[in-house]
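note to self: dont lose this again. the chain is below, predicted strucutre after it. 228 aa total, dont forget to put it in the shared folder this time
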Amino acid sequence: MHSYISLTTELVIGFFALLVLSKVLGKNQITQLTPFDFISALVVGELLGNAIYDNEVGLHYVLYAIFVWGALIYSIEMITQKFRSTRGILEGSPSIVVANGRIQYNELKKNKLDLNQLQHLLREKGVFTIREVEYGILETNGSVNIQKKQAYATPTNQDLSIKLKEQPLPIPLIMDGEIIKKSLKQIGRTESWLFEQLEIRGVSTHQSILYAEWIDGLPLFLQTYSAK
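---
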C-alpha cells in the first residue's frame, strides 16, 4: 500500500513539475519544435522516469535536475530573444533548398536532406512536382515552406471556372544520377527510351542528372548537377 501511495505522489508532483516547465518555456516548444527541443523533451522525460522507477533516485534530486535543465533552456530562449545575432548559432537558420525553380543541391547536402525527403516535405504542402515551386525554404524545425510559381498560384482554375482536367501523378525517373527502373516500368518505358530523351536534350550521361521527372503529356523535366 505504501508503494502505491509513494508512486502516486511522485506522479502527481512530476506531472505538475512538467506542467510548470511547459508554461515557463512557452508554446514555441511545441509549435516550433527543433531537434534540440525534441532531445530536451526526451531528457526531461527520462529524468522524471528515473524518479518513478528507480528507488535509489530521490524525487527531490530529479526535480532539481528538471529545474536546472529548464533554467538552461529558458536562458537560451531569453538570449535568442534579446540578442538577434545569437539566433543563427543557437537556433539555426532557414535554408533555401529551391531557388528560381531549381533544387539547390549544395543546400540539401549541407542540411543532410536527400531528394526523397524533399519530395515528402513538398507533398505535405500539397505540392507533388518541383515544377510548381519557385522558392522552397527549409525551416529550423525541419518543415519546408514554399512559394509557388505564378502559373500555379491563386487564383485557381476553379476560381476562374476553368474546366478541370485529370491531374496525372509525377513519376521520378532519375534521382541522384541513378535511373529508377521501377518508375520506367510503371510508365511503360525502357532505358533506351530514356537515353534517347537525354540525348535529345543534349545530356551525355544520366549520371549528370540530379533529378528527372515524367508527367504524361508534358516534356521530360531535367535538372543536372551543374548550375547551368
